[in-house]
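The protein record passed on below.

***
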Amino acid sequence: MTDEPPDGSKADELEDLDQRLKAIEARKRKSVDTGAEVGANKGFQALGELLGGILVGLGLGWCADTYVFHSKPWGMIIGTVLGMVAAIYAMIKSSQNR
């Protein structure tokens, strides 16, 4: 004779245990510590804003030098400085959002 009851409650217990285990694993996946990922994402965002601002300012300064004012280095210099200022402003604004 075995100790198992004949009505199949052992299978029900195993099924219940399996469901609880899956629920615990699902909660664990949701609560994974992503502090490093969030920090890296913010860093990449700041880098993109800085490079984007500088390159856009540089490009606009080059266009102003080449097609509008014909004053070769000054438009690029002023555009780069203004792009850097705009990029730093954007970085500060995005860091204050969170």
The mean pLDDT is 83. The first helix runs from residue 9 to 30. The CA atoms of residues 54 and 83 lie 5 Å apart.
